[in-house]
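B., you asked whether I could sanity-check this one before it goes into the benchmark set. Here's the sequence:
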Amino acid sequence: MQKKSLNVWLVKTGEPSPVDDKDCRVMRTGMLANELVLQGHRVTWWDSCFNHQTKSFRFNESTRVCLPNGLELQFLLGCGYRNHLSWARIKDHRQVAVTFASRALTLQKPDIIVAPYPTVELCAASAKYGKAHGIPVLADVRDLVPDSIYEYFHPFLRPLVRASLSKYERSARHALSSVDGIIGITQEFLDWGLYKAERRLSESDAVIHHCYDDKAVSEAQIVQAIEGWRARGITTALSTIICFFGVISSTQDFLTVIQGIRSAGTRLSGVTFVFCGCGPDLDQLRRSAHGISNIHFPGQVDAPSVVALMRMSRYGIAPYRSTLNYVGNIPNKFVEYMSSGLPVITPLRGVVRRLVDDNGIGIIYEEGNQLGFQTAILSAIALPDKKYQDMREKVRQLYNSRFSKSAVMEKFVKHIERVVTSRIRYVS
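And here's what the prediction gave me:
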């Protein structure tokens, strides 16, 4: 029997959009949108006119875009912001949520809404719309705000910050308690969401990990990108490559990495470190690495270049700080490395450390310990090829079983369909 085609709303800002660049790296919502369309569902993705990655506006007014595959995008206007942690960002999120609430009334009602959390404001607006129209709403918890915000401040100031954000805290709790189901990217994130919602686990709740689309670029694009890296002087013929991709910010402890590489001197002369990405700490990081010839900062790179460099690399480095948002998390970059069979070098505690230790898929060092980082890198490079290949095979097995796009998106779509079906049965 043919399954019913659903009308699904995905309400998520902050990710790369198909209108940004044909070669942009599609993330969680983009992959879910494409998978739902592929399985015959109608999808509307509510996004922001403001591009979080480039801090620029895609459109100067709320705009509707329809893609050739049938995916509809609704871009919502807010004021934008320059800094990740700012009142302007909260103001922008509020404006976008107000615009969503207004424009949502002009469209045909969906069968279900998936509202990734954050933003708190859009999640709350989605929940309010769902309650008013009898539509089930799922919150996809990816960030532990506002709790994660407090860690940016000195412990002495945190009580004051908590007090100033008390209204925001109440809004977060109300949003999570108002939705019909909570999805966590890990069990820890789901548990946090249920705690904020002050309820127990239900059939509408689930753990659905991050994933990565390792088939998003063609072999021809990868070969061309490898030539591009060679033109920059980055090649496996000259050295062993260790890579990083992501936003370069205070969420990573790059200072320890740079200090460890510098102090190792000629012992790492056969290793090339390629740290890709932009971010608020990039200029400072470049200054701290001045004079170290085997460190490269190519800036933001496209999807084919990412896959090509991972194919050329021996390890991926993930120097995340063990903050609240990361100890219970399996970051995107960790999954991205696994998609290419790359073992990871990381100081991150919590879920990632358990995965690395339990499955033998990487090397651990302690955050802030430059000698420990140096030892980890030297050990990684000296690992006999048989042991290294065994490690790569374990990475591939873990990725295929738990983090591949096909496995994760199939689970996500089935959960959405199940929640709608259960809701129809309950109402009937």
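One thing to flag: The two ends are 20 Å apart (CA to CA). Otherwise nothing jumped out at me.
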